[in-house]
Amino acid sequence: MAENQLNLNHLISLSHVVETGSYSKAAERLGLSQPEISQQIEELTQACGLPLVTKHGRTIAPTPLGQELARVGRRIRTESEHAAKIAADHRAGIGGRLTVGASLTAGAFLAPLALANLRRTHPALVVSLQIGYSGDIVEAVIDELADVGIIEVPVQRSELLVSPFYRDVLRCIVSADHPLAGRTVTAASLKDETLILRELGSGMREAVSAALGQAGLTFEHTIEIGSAEATRAAVGVGLGITWISALTQMEAKGLAVISISDLSIERAVSVIRRRDREPTPAARAFIEALEHAALDIGENQ
Length: 301
Prior knowledge:
Layout: H1 8-20, H2 23-30, H3 34-48, E1 53-56, E2 59-62, H4 64-91, E3 97-102, H5 104-121, E4 126-131, H6 134-142, E5 148-151, E6 160-175, E7 184-185, E8 194-198, H7 203-215, E9 221-225, H8 228-236, E10 242-245, E11 255-260, E12 265-274, H9 281-297
Parallel strand pairs: 3-4, 3-5, 7-11, 8-9
Antiparallel strand pairs: 1-2, 5-12, 6-10, 6-11, 6-12
Helix pairs in contact: 1-2, 1-3, 1-4, 2-3, 5-9
């Protein structure tokens, strides 16, 4: 057996048989007849010299060896799909498809600017932009549901390459008629204010809470609001204070910034991709466009 090379198509067929528990369902998936699938599994069994599946009534179950080889078959399917995608990208120059996952602020401001630049140079590229929490974007890239991701929180996952490319400075804002509007104050002078926080899972909340904790600043009164727009609206009517990305200030009406002399809150915005995958031409082009977008905006200070 050590000298024999197993048929890759047979391994793929085995993976479908194990997933469906049926020769006929596997045959339907692959567009083959049931006898053809049965013959492939029989030939693979002979090549291995050990049983790969057993029958339990109408259900087919894998042996321990069959289970392991089925996993190999699934990996072959994944790699084959990945190879087809690479070939399609190269045939189209930089065409094909690209799926980008972006966290909330990055998805609203940085990603669209990068995609606009990319569209001008690569009009044939079909792009899907998925917006979510940074944690969800991390999982999407790991699970290969997104080619690249943009996140606003620190992450250490062995599966990922993490490349910071933008420094996002967070600004403390109040309503335009707040007594502290436009002033420079110390962090301690804010302790009697009501702090408006984003919902759990938000990268903004994580960054603000971590920085306030490190500064030893606590607020007796807090309000949790589950969207960036509603948070700014609440501040605008005097409900409390909050921190927002400087990227959003261009849209903020009825708001004013407080400068805090002894507290600065920043976060790194990073692009992530799988470590074990070479980026497709489309992904490389997007990452380059994203870095140019960050340079165009400049580090907001």
